[in-house]
Amino acid sequence: MNAPLEVEGFIPELDQRHLDALEEEALFILREVAGAFERPALLFSSGKDSCVVLHLAEKAFKTKASEAGARPRFEGHLPIPLLHVDTGHNFPEVLKFRDARVVEIGARLLVAQVEDSIKRGTVRLAHPLESRNNHQTITLLEAVEEHHFDCLIGGGRRDEEKARAKERIFSHRDSFGQWQPKEQRPELWSLFNTRIKPGEHFRAFPISNWTELDVWLYIAREGIPLPDIYYAHERQVIRRRGLLVPSTTVTPALEGETIETARVRFRTVGDMTCTCPVESTARTTAEIVAETLKVTVSERGATRMDDRTSDASMERRKKEGYF
Amino acid sequence: MTPAPDAQHLDADIELAHKALRFLTAGSVDDGKSTLIGRLLFDSRAILADQLDALERRAAGAPIDLSLLTDGLEAEREQGITIDVAYRYFATKRRKFIIADAPGHEQYTRNMVTAAAGSDAAVVLVDITKLSVASEPVQLLPQTRRHALLTHLLRVPSIVFAVNKLDALETGAEAAFHSVARALTIFAEQAGITVRGVIPVSALRGDNVATPSANWGWYDGPTLLRVLEGLPAASERRDGSLRIPVQYIARAGESTGHQPRVLWGRLAHGTVKAGDRVQILPSGETATVTEVHHAGSEVDHCEAGQSAGIVLDRQLDVSRGDWIVTPGTAQPVQEFCATLAWLDTEPAIVGRKYWLRHGHRWAQARITEIEHRLDIYTLKNTDTHELKVNEIGRVKVQTQVPLPLEPYADNRVGGAMIVVDPATNRTSGALLVCGTD
Q: Which of A105, A272, B86, B289 has the most CB within a 10 Å radius?
């Protein structure tokens, strides 16, 4: 996994310069968070976008160790803790990756468990196997209150979805954690209006202007480690309404469905109950870039059961305080 | 007279302009802006199969409506309008693009200002079916003038007019286009706007958007996309004095040994390297740069547009919001005149305290005088004592602390500020410094 890519000749000059500009912008945003807020946190789910943001945070706040190894190493420390909202339904290999990565970079990780919200009674499941994906919002907002976070750094990108295309880089949340799309503050130049009242917070999106392809090119160029499930592997899946549903304890086969083994990789990584892999033979970042160039279905359309509910499902969840 | 930039000129620019082009699109309700953007995304294959499926399902057999690609919010679909600035991404072999799509309704001028701030170019749509092309000179719509003027006011370096819906004219498309192009050119000249292209397009059919029109043999100029590919990305000047607003100060690390403070900030203009003498504002103290860092590594130098981490040879009192400059090149002021674009539904009030953000500094300030309002239809100044939402005027401002200002026309970082209402924290206005008296 994660063999650093020979980038020479693979990423054209045009993309190199573009990646430099995107990186420059992202580092500026991360330092703005550190400079403007008292208690920020970086949302880290081990998904590829948050892996990219974490790498950018290392670049923004640490210094690259002199000897170049297989993957980049940095000295210094992150002034911002990491926060993971764990639904309790995460792929085990992803949690293993998360913990190893946190030790490796010497970061401070806080984990907020949906399970704890269920115990507190603030999250009520309709049935035991209900997807916990939407319930994460409650746990997230509880963590914001508990730790008095005033800014959460996320890996959201504007190219992901139509409601996200209208998201600010610094996005205000009221004291209920809600997003008010019609009340968004105009964002002029890089003069971010980061003023808040007690109980309110911000979401900051350093990779707002990146596309899925930019993310993969950057992962390739920088040698950013990702969980193994991003690369092609054999997995037991169920074909359901055009999606490949991974066969797990929380997503069992329904009556009449058959389980088959397929060669797949994940394009996004999230809660097991709503994240589907795509068929792929790409075992390296380079092969994923090649596949991404040819892709014909949007990232969320191919892999997210939750976004298929309606045209506005992301917008509704965002208003409620979702990532 | 079709103002077609010559091909040689375009190619020369492409060599220089590897940076993504960020452009805004401005147009009035119904003049086909969403369709134009949909067309750019569609023809550059930035639309994926599932998004296309969704459109085809909606169209139910009729030709697909490309404008639906850009209506992101539920409220927008309910009302059939666009409310907020949306960002779209596409690329050609030559260039990457970021579209800041600004809604055209008058009440959303603030979004137009938002989209224009930081854009490299503006594409202003002109709906030819709304103009009476028989009269000479052709009377442009107020919206077109407003969009062009706002673009100019915010110093967006390039403007391109896309004359849309020519396909809807039964006859005389050529003559009609030339009349409108003439009117646009005259208007732009009067307003001091440099036009980089006036292009006849049909967003609906795709004529001259990404591919040359097969219908209008009389036009031999470039397509809209070709013009956009060749436009320069805005950049700040590297020569001249150094100016850095201090954004973040890295505290001493955990490891043992000497841990100097690193002062981070993005260069507004100039360059910085080890050995440079610099001055800190407002303290006025000077020091020598001993190290320059960039993106996790120590580097030789940094230039305008890059964020540099600077280590000085001695410990000075520096905080976020201060400036690092070439000694003796900046004279901070507490009173200045500026153009104010008001974005808040509560009008600007003379004498009231507001927060200003300049660079990374928040300063208390008040408007001491509203000199006049700019009538964006007539280009004339009107006497007034208040500025309401979407109005633009000339004001005098007084700040509680001195700020090292520069005219906005010279530098966007040194000359731009936002005004924030201290009661609501809303971003109420955008200030562009005219000159420091």
A: B86
Search chain A and give the residue with CA nearest B83.
Answer: A182
Residues of A in contact with B362 (CB under 8 A): 195
The predicted model gives B403-413 an average pLDDT of 93
Question: pTM, whole model, 2 decimals?
Answer: 0.89
How many angstroms separate the CA atoms of A14 and B94, rounded? Answer: 8
Residues paired with residue B271 on neighbouring β-strands, in sequence order: B303
* ipTM of the shown complex: 0.88
**What 3 state SS string does chain B have?**
CCCCCCHHHHHHHHHHCCCCEEEEEECCCCCCHHHHHHHHHHHCCCCCHHHHHHHHHHHCCCCCCHHHHHCCCHHHHHHCCCCCCEEEEEECCCCEEEEEECCCCHHHHHHHHHHHCCCCEEEEEEEHHHCCCCCCCCCCCHHHHHHHHHHHHCCCCEEEEEEECHHHCCCCHHHHHHHHHHHHHHHHHHHCCCEEEEEECECCCCECCCECCCCCCCCCCCCHHHHHHHCCCCCCCCCCCCEEECCEEECCCCCCCCCCCEEEEECCECEEECCCEEEEECCCCEEEEEEEEECCEEECEEECCCEEEEEECCCCCCCCCCEEECCCCCCCEEEEEEEEEECCCCCECCCCEEEEEECCEEEEEEEEEEEEEECCCCCCEECCCCECCCCEEEEEEEEEEEECCCCCCCCHHHHEEEEECCCCCCEEEEEEEEECC
**Where does the pLDDT of residue B143 fall: very low under 50, low under 70, confident under 90, or very high at 90 and above?**
confident
Burial class (CB in 10 A: 0-12, 13-18, 19+), A47: buried
Q: What is the pLDDT of residues A85-144, one digit of tens each?
A: 998 888 999 999 999 999 999 999 999 999 999 999 898 888 877 888 888 899 999 999
If you measure CA to CA, which chain B residue comes closest to A210? B89
Q: Report the gap between the CA of A184 and the closest CA in chain B (Å).
A: 9
Residues B255, A187: C-beta atoms closer than 8 Å: no
Angle A169-A175-A180 from CA coordinates, rounded to 5°: 50
Nearest to A165 among B72, B293, B360 (CB): B72
Say yes or no to pLDDT of B65 above 80: no
Kindly state the tokens that stand for A153. Answer: 């750094």
Q: Point out the residue among A31, A184, A185 whose CB comes nearest to the CB of B264.
A: A31
Q: Do A301 and B48 touch (CB under 8 A)?
A: yes
Q: Which residue has the higher pLDDT, B301 or B193?
A: B301
In this predicted model, which residue has the larger pLDDT, A100 or B31? A100
State the distance between the two ends of chain A, measured CA to CA, in whole angstroms. 28
- In total, the C-beta contacts within 8 angstroms joining chain A to chain B are 160
User: Domain A13-225+311-319 is in which class?
Assistant: alpha beta
Domains of chain A: which residue ranges?
13-225+311-319, 228-306
Question: How far from B410 is each of A297, B22, B109, B148, B435, CA to CA, in Å?
Answer: 45, 20, 24, 20, 10
Of residues B235 and B117, more confidently modeled: B117
Question: How far is B215 from chain A, CA to nearest CA, in Å?
Answer: 31
Instruction: State the smallest CA–CA distance between residue B349 and chain A in angstroms.
Output: 20
Tell me, what's the pLDDT at B107? 60
Return the structure tokens found at B304: 């305008």
Go through the domains of chain B in sequence order and give each one's CATH number: 7-230 (3.40.50.300), 243-325 (2.40.30.10), 333-435 (2.40.30.10)
d(CA A265, CA A245): 12
Taking CA–CA distances from B74, the nearest residue in chain A reads A312
Asked if the Cβ–Cβ distance from B255 to A75 is below 8 Å, we say yes
